[in-house]
């Protein structure tokens, strides 16, 4: 039983694609077929695939249903995290989604998903994305301070949701965790953040995130081993649409 992850499929079987990059960047050409082929090649029925947010351009569940059906058709158990573009998914209706898709998809929010000895926990997360003001050498020399203050409020909300997820897993007897965030755990101003601190507080094994698209954004946050935790970016275009193996 293996664990894989990929994010940012941005499917639009029942809606309109709203990202110019997705229509013009060669990295996105035929990406749905590539995801399907790669998943069918590497995933076994007993494996788990975590989709790390931004599943659909659908503005509501009716538009998103064809996209969710595509995800459900992939091999293995599918766990979905909420992304910033997932308008079909309201946090307060997560239980309703889990009831509707029981046995086909699991929606990860204020709960956990068991994976062997690990509990998979997660939330959308948040980080300040600018604007940043750069000097001629590309170094940050300033930023939108009012925007940063608003971002911190959103971070606090998402931290509370992630802690709720962790506590639900702990109450069920788990002490090994893999954390999933849609947004990166840090921004360009940070080496550590409230999310990395929370991961360390609970002794997380890994932190997995998506959201960063395009070659210029791939290194906006932590990758690799940092303070005894492994951090992984799993945006689909970064991975070449091949899910990343997290646990064998």
Low-confidence stretches: none
- Count the E strands: 13
Mean pLDDT: 93
Instruction: Assign the structural class, choosing from mainly alpha, mainly beta, alpha/beta, alpha+beta, or little secondary structure.
Output: alpha/beta
Distance between the termini: 7 Å
For the record, what CATH class applies? Alpha Beta
Helix count equals 7
CATH topology: Purple Acid Phosphatase, chain A, domain 2
Number of domains: 1
Q: Could you state the CATH homologous superfamily?
A: Metallo-dependent phosphatases
CATH architectural grouping = 4-Layer Sandwich
How would you spell out the order of helices and strands? EHHEHEHEEEEEHEHEEEHE
Give the helix level as a range of percent. Answer: 25-40%
CA gyration radius, whole angstroms: 17 Å
User: Main β-sheet, in a few words?
Assistant: 6 strands, mixed
Key features of this structure:
248 residues; alpha/beta; Purple Acid Phosphatase, chain A, domain 2; six-stranded mixed beta sheet; five-stranded mixed beta sheet; 7 helices; 13 strands; 22% strand; globular
């Amino acid at each position: 039983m293996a664990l894989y992850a990929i994010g940012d499929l941005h499917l639009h079987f029942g809606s309109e694609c709203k990202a110019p990059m997705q229509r013009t960047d060669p990295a996105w050409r035929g990406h749905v077929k590539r995801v399907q082929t790669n998943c069918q090649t590497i995933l076994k029925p007993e494996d788990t695939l975590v989709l790390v947010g931004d599943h659909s351009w659908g503005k509501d569940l009716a538009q998103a249903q064809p996209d969710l059906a595509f995800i459900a058709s992939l091999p293995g158990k599918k766990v979905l995290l909420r992304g910033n573009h997932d308008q079909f998914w309201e946090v307060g209706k997560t239980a309703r989604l889990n009831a509707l898709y029981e046995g086909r998809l699991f929606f990860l929010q204020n709960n956990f998903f068991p994976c062997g000895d690990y509990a998979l926990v997660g939330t959308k997360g948040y980080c300040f994305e600018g604007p940043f003001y750069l000097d001629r050498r590309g170094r940050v020399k300033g930023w939108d301070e009012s925007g940063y203050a608003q971002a911190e409020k959103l971070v606090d909300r998402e931290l509370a949701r992630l802690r709720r997820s962790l506590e639900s897993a702990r109450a069920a007897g788990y002490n090994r965790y893999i954390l999933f965030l849609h947004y990166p755990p840090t921004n360009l101003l940070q080496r550590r953040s409230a999310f990395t601190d929370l991961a360390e507080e609970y002794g997380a094994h890994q932190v997995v995130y998506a959201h960063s698209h395009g070659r210029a954004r791939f290194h906006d946050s932590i990758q690799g081993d940092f303070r005894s935790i492994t951090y992984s970016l799993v945006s689909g275009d970064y991975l070449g649409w091949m899910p990343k193996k997290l646990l064998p």
